[in-house]
Each structure stands twice: as structure tokens, then as C-alpha cells.
Design a protein that fits this description.
alpha/beta, about 230 residues, globular, 5-stranded parallel sheet, Rossmann fold, 5 strands
Length: about 230
């Protein structure tokens, strides 16, 4: 079974990604980040999901992106609610986040001797983040195969993003096909007291939209139904 390092945030996309990789018979080493995000409840979701799927290893990496701020997720800036679509890159964008995360995943993959890296980015129903686009994934894969001892010595890295061209509805259908309990995942950027997603941030609205368009039951508890 080929080894893979998989970025697991605890959200719907990365949880579906994990179910997919396990279904495809990869030996998964999962990596989650505690990066100073205001929605750190997702880390608990990632722990539960990693345990459920029996990953080989699950590491939680501590980095403090609040040192730089620059995002509503890593500062005290309010998370935008009920934002109009197609109005530019929102303040929930975390500068260079996926570049940083993939760099850590690449380092671990090189140590493990793993050639496969999985990331759950999506470039259709998403908030417009530039590090979720196909060009970024291709660019990082090229970098990985230039900047590592393993690649220079013949071990080529592949960055897998199987959700890249899926809508949120497609992802909801895929989660259902894989038998995933989507209620275990966490998407909300602005957690409410108790188990509730806020229902108004971009992440909640995209999540709810996907389940509705897919015709799949949404197990999420929302403070306000999107």
C-alpha cells in the first residue's frame, strides 16, 4: 500500500479526502495544524476523524500565524457574514496558508519516504482563495520536485487534489458514496457556543449549499440555517 501524507483540517473537504484516500488503499499519515485559527474546534474534529479511519500516524503541528495576522481567522477582525458572492478575495484568506501547510507535508513525506501528498482544495464552490487553484497545485508539485534531496535522487513527488474540480454538491455526493458521517466534520469559521456552526460565514454557506444541491441530508447543526 503506497504511503501518503494527507492534510486533514477536520472540515468536510479534507474528511472526504481522507475517506477517498483510505478507499483507494493508501497508507495515510495525517497532518493537522494548530496555527492560531479562531475555529480551533476543527482540530478536535480532525482527531476524531483520524482515529475513526485508523490512519497510520496523526501529527498536530503547532505554528502561530497570529504572529503575522492578516486574516480574520488569525486576528480579532470580524469574520464576514452573509457576504455577497464574487466580491474579491475575503478577509478570511490566510496569507500563504496552503503553501506553508504543503511545505510541512512535503518535509514529512521526504522523511517517511512517501511520494504522495494529498490536499483537499476545491476551485469551483470556494471563497476565491488563490492557493486553491490548479495552477498553485501544479506549481507546488514542480517546486517539490526541484527542492528536495529525495527528488534529486529519483523519488518524484505527486500532489493529489482529487476534489479540485468538484462542486460542493459533488463533494457531498462523494462523501455519501464513501459512507462518510459528514456530521463529524467541522467547517464554520466563527464557532458558536456548543456544537453549532454559525450558518452565515462563507464556509457554512458553501457547506449548506452543497448538501442542498446534492439532495443529500445535511447533518450539520447551524445556529441560523443558511
Amino acid at each position: 500500500m503506497p504511503r501518503a501524507v494527507l492534510l486533514l483540517s477536520g472540515g468536510l473537504d479534507s474528511t472526504t479526502l481522507l475517506a477517498y484516500a483510505v478507499n483507494e488503499q493508501y497508507t495515510v499519515h495525517a497532518m493537522t495544524f494548530r496555527y492560531g485559527q479562531r475555529h480551533a474546534v476543527e482540530i478536535d474534529a480532525a482527531r476524531r476523524i483520524a482515529a475513526l479511519y485508523g490512519v497510520r500516524d496523526h501529527v498536530i503541528v503547532d505554528i502561530n500565524l497570529r504572529t503575522f495576522g492578516g486574516s480574520a481567522l488569525t486576528s480579532d477582525v470580524a469574520v464576514p457574514k452573509d457576504r455577497a458572492d464574487d466580491v474579491g478575495i475575503p478577509i478570511t484568506y490566510v496569507p500563504a496558508r496552503n503553501t506553508i501547510f504543503l511545505s510541512f507535508a512535503l518535509a514529512w513525506a521526504e522523511v517517511l519516504g512517501a511520494s504522495e501528498i494529498f490536499i483537499g482544495v476545491n476551485a469551483l464552490d470556494y471563497s476565491g482563495y488563490p492557493d486553491c487553484r490548479p495552477a498553485f497545485i501544479d506549481g507546488f508539485a514542480a517546486l517539490a520536485n526541484l527542492a528536495t534531496k529525495a527528488a534529486v535522487e529519483g523519488q518524484r513527488f505527486t500532489v493529489h487534489a482529487p476534489l479540485l474540480d468538484m462542486t460542493k454538491a459533488d463533494i457531498a455526493v462523494e462523501a455519501s458514496r464513501l459512507g462518510l458521517d459528514a456530521g463529524l466534520s467541522w467547517s464554520c469559521y466563527d464557532p458558536q457556543p456548543g456544537p453549532s456552526h454559525c450558518g452565515a460565514c462563507d464556509a457554512c454557506r458553501l457547506r449548506a449549499k452543497g448538501f442542498v444541491e446534492a439532495g443529500v441530508a445535511d447533518p450539520t447543526i447551524y445556529a441560523v440555517r443558511p
